[in-house]
Amino acid sequence: MSNATDKLEELGIQLDSQLPYDVDRMFPKLQGWGVKGAIKQKHKVLQKVEPLLKRMVLRDEKILYVAKGIQVKFSEQYFLGIWANLINQTVFVLTNLRLIMLHVDGSGNPHNMYWVIYYSQITTFKGSWTGQVKLKLEDGLKLVFSGFKGDDRKQMPTIFQECVEVYRQQGFNPQVTQSRENLCPNCLAVVPKGQYQCGECGQNFYTPSSLAGRSLIFPSWGDFMMGHTVLACVELLGYVASWFFLVAFAMAGFREGGIEGLVATCIFLFFIAIEHVIDSALTFFIAKKGLTPKGKPAQVAATEAPVLTGDASNPYNPPPV
Fold first, then answer.
1. Nearest CA-CA partner of 230 in 105, 145, 109, 78
2. N or C, fewer C-beta in 10 Å, the chain?
3. CA atoms of 85 and 267, how far apart (whole Å)
4. Higher-confidence residue: 148 or 203?
């Protein structure tokens, strides 16, 4: 029995026995100030995603580390402020085969967008003292995440380097359509780049432009479709408030008569148009990150992970780490 296992038993924490955790890597720090709280906090993250992971983890795949962070994008932070943090919470699951990324809501429950990145597709994986973790991928995509604790920022890049070395030794380089592949939220199969229907279960997805078009017509509509309910409600309240303010401004101009009324109307229409365009653009770029389900799938998702086998060239035959 490992030291980490002893510590979990001491704290009364039980991990799902059906999942192949490497507990010594998962919980590298067992002594010191704040350790008990950190372990319990990670367990809360695990409890929310374990049902999904039981469907995702493949034969011979081991879970090496799990951590939760927030994707950072300047445009979203600028226009959405703290609400950007709500829609960008991401759980990192590092296995001996791949990096799995799960979009979760404010309570830690998995949402619709899931991704997988093979380590051979990552050119840079580093943490900084500010709490950020930066990834640069083979296809040029750059991802920045914040909110990771000190142990996470040290442990994840270390595990990544170990996995990359095994990849290199075995010549393991799975074929992909993009560095960060989208996963179908229903059956968890890879949905190739540019496709908006799952080839396995028939689940359809909204295109980013269709969601952006909805937000262009009525701000917050696209966010409601993506399931960002809290953000959409906040945007809707702000939109309604801006209408009241701008209508009052226009009415004041009309009461003045003459050119003032025309100027007030033009200003009103300009600011409303700007609001529609900005919300549409934000919806488009948020939707481009992953897949948003449209209707019901043709097939019901399996409750267990598929058992996939093959030779060393098979991307589902993971190298040992």
1. 105
2. N
3. 32
4. 203
CB-CB contact of 76 with 135 (8 Å)? no
Query: Residue 177: in which H helix or E strand, if any?
Result: none
Which letter does DSSP use for residue 118 in this model?
E
- Both tokens of residue 142? 């750059």
More confident residue, 228 or 306: 228
The pTM score is: 0.85
Q: Three-class SS of residue 300?
A: coil
Q: DSSP secondary structure string, 126-163?
A: EE-TTS-EEEEETTS-EEEEE---HHHHHHHHHHHHHH
Indicate the helix (H) or strand (E) that contains 99.
strand 98-104
Task: Tell me the C-alpha distance between 4 and 13, whole Å.
Answer: 11
Q: How far is CA 113 from CA 19, 105, 116, 241, in A?
A: 22, 11, 11, 31
pLDDT single digits (tens) 243-274: 777 777 667 766 666 576 667 677 777 888 88
CB environment 128-156: b (16+ within 10 A), e (fewer): eeebbbebbbeeeeebbbbbbbebbbebb
DSSP labels for 40-91? HHHHHHHHHHHHHHHHHPPTT--EEEEEEEEE--HHHHHHHTTHHHHH-EEE
d(CA 236, CA 216): 13
In one letter, which amino acid is 54? K
* Phi, psi dihedrals of residue 261, rounded to the nearest 5°: -65, -40
What is the C-alpha end-to-end distance of the chain, expressed in Å? Answer: 20
Side-by-side strand order, sheet with 190-191: 122-127, 133-137, 142-146, 63-71, 89-95, 98-104, 110-118, 181-183, 190-191
| d(C-alpha 93, C-alpha 106), whole Å | 18
Are 275 and 218 spatial neighbours (Cβ–Cβ below 8 Å)? no
